[in-house]
Amino acid sequence: MEKIKIAIQKSGRLSEKSLDLLTECGINVSNGNRKLKTDAHNFPMEILFLRDDDIPQYVEQGVADIGILGQNEVWEKEKDVVEIEKLGFGNCRLSLAIPKDEIYTGLDYFNGKRIATSYPKILKKFFREKGRDVKIEELGGSVEIATGIGLADAIFDIVSTGSTLIMNGLKEAEAIIKSQAVLIGNKNLSTAKTELLERLLFRIKAYKNGQGKKYVLLNAPNEIIPDIVRLLPGMRSPSILPLADKGWSSVHSVIHDDDFWEIIDELKRLGAEGILVVPIEKMIL
Ligand SMILES: Nc1ncnc2c1ncn2[C@@H]1O[C@H](COP(=O)(O)OP(=O)(O)OP(=O)(O)O)[C@@H](O)[C@H]1O
Ligand SMILES: O=P(O)(O)OC[C@H]1O[C@H](OP(=O)(O)OP(=O)(O)O)[C@H](O)[C@@H]1O
Ligand SMILES: [Mg+2]
Q1: What average pLDDT does the segment 86-96 reach?
Q2: CB 14 within 8 A of CB 91
Q3: Which residue range is the domain that position 238 belongs to?
Q4: What class of enzyme is it (predicted)?
């Protein structure tokens, strides 16, 4: 039987979350013995553990059929691959940063300056579009050190919390682009592999749909049910079941984490009782 080959990061920011996603999709992978290639136990899938920089090229060539990596690497490598699905982790931005005591005057500040980065293509394209002339110093990593050692006047690198910038005496001047982990794929997958990809995607979407949502069950007197339904639209509409206690119903619905507490407060104010909140593992729409 044909297997789909997926490339994930061997060790780094995305490794654990990539494996966790496969686990959430019911795909069991054992990687205890540092093997760089392994088979899933219960899905026709082979997992390749690689440097994230190499994944776009391998997916383009078909060495791997699909891969998980940051959009930043996909954009930088400019390989002929398709972005299939955003995965909702590895969220970060690519930013220009300068020494903290400098006065930032807008993009003109960078005219003629040396900027250190591991993302020269993205940076070159950005300044070309903005019509500014900069000198790019390409570095493989530890980019934040570049200004402190006199290699560059500014840097362009990944920022998340901003603490690496602060620790290295820098401040964020411009956030250029946002990135997150994505699933990418080869453009010419066989029919069998496309079917396997569809099965995987179905599971990824079911997992993603359940993220950031809660299942809520509550009891309420029938006269306030219309108000509660207005608050809890649910997926289609909430389920309403009569309780053994006449004049009362049980309402079941899905709510987003974002407005969770506001809705709970309002439900209580309306007179709902016995509110039960349950995490959602998967949701198939
Ligand atoms: N601080 C962060 N917060 C969130 N996501 C991040 C952060 N740093 C990096 N990422 C994302 O995770 C990806 C991998 O980051 P990591 O630092 O592990 O890369 P790397 O050092 O290039 O690894 P490799 O050894 O595989 O080349 C990045 O390309 C980016 O998409
Ligand atoms: O804004 P922050 O939350 O501080 O995160 C940003 C840092 O995270 C990444 O490095 P990582 O820690 O993955 O180490 P690396 O240099 O080995 O890639 C990135 O290259 C930045 O240096
Ligand atoms: Mg890398």
Answers
A1: 98
A2: no
A3: 213-279
A4: transferase
Same domain, 158 and 104: yes
Query: Which of 181, 193, 204, 187 has its CA nearest to residue 46?
Result: 193
Q: What is the pLDDT of residues 241-281, one digit of tens each?
A: 999 999 999 999 999 999 889 999 999 999 999 999 999 99
Q: Is-above-0.80 flag for pTM?
A: yes
Question: How far, in Å, CA of 118 to CA of 156, rounded?
Answer: 8
Q: How far is residue 232's CA from residue 40's CA, in Å, rounded to a whole number?
A: 40
Provide the mean pLDDT of the chain: 95
Per DSSP (E only), the strands in 18-123 are 37-39, 45-50, 66-70, 82-86, 92-99, 114-117
142 CA to middle of ligand 2, Å?
A: 8
The pick from 164, 167, 172, 178 for probing ligand 2's pocket by mutation, whose C-beta has the most ligand atoms within 8 angstroms, reads 164
**Which H or E run contains 195?**
helix 191-210
- ipTM, 2 decimals? 0.96
In-domain check, residue 55: yes
In the β-sheet with 239-242, what is the strand arrangement from edge to edge? 239-242, 248-256, 213-221, 273-279
Any ligand 1 atom below 6 A from CB of 51: yes
